[in-house]
Design brief:
The chain is mainly α. The protein is built from 20 helices and no strands. α7 packs antiparallel against α9 and α9 packs parallel to α18.
Length: about 400
């Protein structure tokens, strides 16, 4: 019997409401509307890119530049990691899986190689951006960072690049011997809806432009005029004039949105009820190595987003610095590389792959995840020790 993670989270939220652990008013106020709006807007852009064929068109342009298997894998990791920092890793898990399988089957490379590369790339690449994954978004908004984009990049860029190199080296080591010359990496991918594709291009341009504008405003001492959710909503607005807007809206990943609604209610009840101190050892809050290591391990038990949601109030109460919050972001994110259960994006990839006749077993993922996570964890612990 398969229990969807969003269903389990909603069941937990329902339980605390029924038992009176939290009132209905408290539950409504606990839901962070800013994060829900941001997620909905980003998912809308991702759905439009896939539905219009614009995503496949971009993929063919990018990956046709590769001449060898090594170049293709490195380009794939770099591209998926880069886009995850902009469109969030869960979005890339949805739209990147068919691309990964198309590349693998066209080039006669085992499916698991590209699926593992996709999972590792979108997890690793998402570290450097406050909108790269849900837990980073929680941290950026919950901690009150003044300039989260610049702060994340300044502190986390170097260890993230090193972690990407580690990921590539391990994926290449797992890849069987391949011919030195690749066939055409993707079949001709025409745009199915020209108007929608133009709107997608406009949305991406607006998103990138507004993010750059926000960074410049903060760097020059001007207060940002737009919040993260407002930036995402404005960027998604060009999609709405499309004649297919209702189909695009229906295809949004509402299960993830329901997961977050349940998460906010359940974590607020845990905090109000005083359950938290018994769940998380105090060392995790006081020590960056413990925060990173604990984030990796506890992400396997309660998942990284609930772990971060539990910890943020305590870090705020303790007056923690931005460095501590960034260590929490790093540890909770790279924990997604350890096992299939470490991140929701991993589950999304497997679910999408199984519908297309491919999968990765828990043990296969573990053989990949253990060395990747140990080495990446060591890099981040060493980096924070260096800059502290």
């Amino acid at each position: 019997m398969r229990l969807p993670i969003w269903g389990m989270m909603l069941a937990g939220a329902g339980a605390v409401l029924i038992t009176g652990s939290i009132t209905l008013t408290e539950a409504i106020h606990a839901v962070n509307i800013e994060i829900i709006i941001f997620l909905f807007s980003v998912f809308l852009i991702g759905s439009a890119m896939e539905g219009s064929g614009y995503l496949g068109y971009l993929a063919r342009i990018i990956f046709s530049r590769a001449g060898t298997p090594g170049q293709l894998i490195s380009l794939f990791i770099l591209t998926m990691g880069g886009f995850s920092a902009l469109l969030m890793n869960d979005t890339l898990a949805i739209i990147g899986t068919p691309i990964a399988l198309a590349l693998a089957r066209t080039c006669e490379i085992p499916d698991r190689i590209f699926l593992l590369a996709l999972a590792g790339a979108i997890t690793t690449g998402s570290i450097i951006s406050p909108i790269g994954n849900p837990q980073n978004l929680l941290i950026a908004i919950g901690s009150g960072m003044e300039n989260p984009f610049l702060t994340f990049i300044e502190v986390l860029l170097v260890p993230t690049v090193l972690s990407g190199i580690i990921l590539y080296a391990i994926i290449r080591r797992m890849t069987p011997p391949l011919p030195s010359v690749l066939p055409p990496v993707l079949p001709e991918a025409g745009i199915r809806d020209q108007r929608l594709a133009l709107l997608c291009r406009a949305s991406l341009g607006i998103l990138i432009g507004l993010i750059i504008l926000r960074i410049i405003c903060m760097a020059t001492g001007y207060p940002p005029m737009l919040t993260l959710s407002t930036i995402a909503a404005i960027s998604a607005a060009p999609i709405l004039p499309s004649p297919n807007r209702f189909a695009i809206i229906r295809s949004v990943d509402y299960r993830t949105l329901l997961f977050f609604v349940g998460l906010f209610i359940l974590m607020e009840a845990v905090w109000i009820g005083g359950t938290f101190p018994g769940l998380i050892p105090s060392q995790l809050i006081l020590s960056i190595p413990w925060l990173i290591g604990g984030g990796i391990l506890l992400s396997q038990i309660i998942s990284n987003v609930p772990f971060v949601a539990l910890l943020i109030p305590s870090l705020i109460e303790a007056g923690s610095s931005e460095t501590v919050f960034l260590a929490l972001a790093a540890g909770s994110t790279i924990g997604g590389n350890l096992t299939l259960l470490g991140a929701a994006s991993n589950i999304i990839i497997i679910q999408n792959a199984e519908r297309r006749g491919a999968t990765i077993s828990f043990v296969e993922f573990l053989r990949f995840g253990v060395p990747v996570t140990i080495l990446q964890g060591a890099v981040f612990i060493g980096w924070f020790a260096l800059i502290a």
